[in-house]
Here is the input.
Amino acid sequence: MTLAPFGARLRQALDTRGQLCVGIDPHASLLAAWGLGDDLAGLESFSRTVVEALADRVAVLKPQAAFFERFGSRGVAVLERTVEEARAAGALVLMDAKRGDIGSTMAAYAEAFLSPGSPLFSDAVTVSPYLGFGSLRPALDLAREQGCGVFALALTSNPEGAEVQRAVGADGEPVAASVLRQLAAENEGAAPLGSFGAVVGATLADAGVDLAINGPLLAPGIGAQGATMADLPRVFGASVMNVVPSVSRDVLKHGPSVPALRAAAERFVGEFAGAV
Ligand SMILES: O=c1ccn([C@@H]2O[C@H](COP(=O)(O)O)[C@@H](O)[C@H]2O)c(=O)[nH]1
Here is the structure.
């Protein structure tokens, strides 16, 4: 069964479930705070609890692949189950893998996350365009074919990102602006929302680039990194309704209580609605 385009599925999820993405980031410190071991059993219990608490109510869940990969193949098996169970419960899953490579290697990454039948099949994946935007072509094409989404890093939430992303190319165009322009081209004519998104940190003082890409804008940095929902209208301007605010630690710190995790997510959904 072919999925409807990711952008349409995402728009509907945001409109019905509220504008929020919660990250599944099993940091060692969070496992300890939840009374779990920094081991496979802890990883499994943490992920299961987040899915149980949130997958039937939050628009997007974003597992951070690195926290699973650090446990090797058995950690990846937990990631596979997490993705499957989250999707079965109705959440859209955005795999935060930030992959990027050339030609057939990029095609293999795309297959891993965007090919139906793959054990890690997700609704969307984060990618790095810093081997050149054109290197993402296999992922963009497979996503379009399968009703999936791709989120390219444009202006990340970390201060170090600026040295690359704000750099100005020989043609005078800043690197991030070029990424955003090319995403806009991928989304041309899509309605209600394109499937090709950008990662733009909520922590930015000023985006300073055109964010009107007709696609989703994943905004990490809220909570533990210091940004708040109230910052979003200033950073994203007229594109704020296409923002997918992303929070990991500031929701997860309320676990392992399922009601407390739900209440935290609900609070962030309310704060977004109040801010825009
Ligand atoms: O620019 C970026 C891109 C990705 N991230 C990821 O989002 C979460 C943020 O976690 P918090 O606990 O809410 O700070 C994490 O997985 C990052 O790798 C980002 O922060 N910034």
Summary: Residues 23, 25, 64, 96, 156-157, 199, 201, 220-221, 223-225, 246-249 surround LLZGTKA7 (CB under 6 Å). The chain has a mean pLDDT of 98.
